[in-house]
Specification:
It is built from twelve helices and no strands. With 241 residues, the protein is mainly α. The protein has two domains: 137 residues; 48 residues. The radius of gyration is 19 Å and the shape is globular. The two termini are 36 Å apart. 29% of the residues are buried.
């Protein structure tokens, strides 16, 4: 069924069903042995059907990054290592797919997923997660085949950006009882991603949720108007409207 699975760069009903099965294994509690086999199976899927993750819509790449990053915060060191290496494989495969030019797709989806995980997962960004970032960096530095390309420095830049987001989030945690300061920090983070519409939207959505929680509905509405303008501008540039 390879031809059917590859139709429309892998964005077809059959591939969606296959991918959902893989995703289900990551979303449900599994034994350590089962998880290791799921990670191996995912490597095979990424290797055989790269266009599914690196071409067209980003939804499958996004969902996979999100689930893998959750395991980068696992209490089991062996699972953290396996998850970190799988995420590195996703990034490295993306780099190879573009003819060793960049891994922009995975880079962006990792940052977006980290931003979402901060709100969804307790303790993300702690020592365990930091260790996983170090493993990813080490993988890039020790990969001899791409040693003389931009890849190792790009990976370092990605992990640095993740740490910046985590530091900003820690500051937000300190000021969680000060709504105005909290929103100011959110705004600064959103502003820092002015050149990346998807990330700017992620943080504006987060700001809106804080405003709604505090009963500041006018401010929340302004955030959503800004998001709508951002989406409209993006679609106009793409010639879609």
């Amino acid at each position: 069924l390879k031809n059917q699975l590859l139709a429309d760069h892998g964005h077809n009903p059959l591939m969606k069903k296959v991918f959902d099965v893989y995703l289900c294994f990551l979303q449900k509690n599994q034994s350590e042995t089962a998880l290791k086999n799921v990670f191996i199976a995912l490597r095979a899927l990424i290797f055989k059907f790269p266009s599914t993750f690196y071409e067209g819509r980003a939804d499958m790449c996004s969902a996979l990054c999100y689930e893998i990053l959750k395991y980068c915060n696992s209490k089991l060191s062996s699972i953290r290592t396996e998850a970190s290496q799988l995420l590195y494989f996703l990034m490295r495969n993306n780099f190879d797919y573009t003819g060793k030019k960049s891994f922009v797709r995975t880079h962006l989806q990792v940052i977006i997923s980290v931003s979402q995980l901060i709100a969804d997962v307790v303790g993300i960004g702690g020592t365990r997660f930091q260790q996983s970032l170090s493993i990813i960096n080490n993988c890039a530095n020790n990969d001899r085949i791409i040693k003389h390309t931009t890849f190792p420095s790009d990976v370092k830049d990605l992990t640095k950006r993740i740490r910046t987001v985590l530091m900003a989030t820690a500051q937000m945690k300190e000021h969680e009882n000060d709504p105005e300061m909290l929103v100011d920090l959110q705004y600064s983070l959103a502003k820092s991603y002015a050149s990346t519409p998807e990330l700017r939207k992620t943080w504006l959505d987060s700001m809106a949720r804080i405003h709604v929680k505090n009963g500041d509905l006018s401010e929340a509405a302004m955030c959503y108007v800004h998001v709508a303008a951002l989406v409209a501008e993006y679609l106009t540039r793409k010639g879609m409207i």
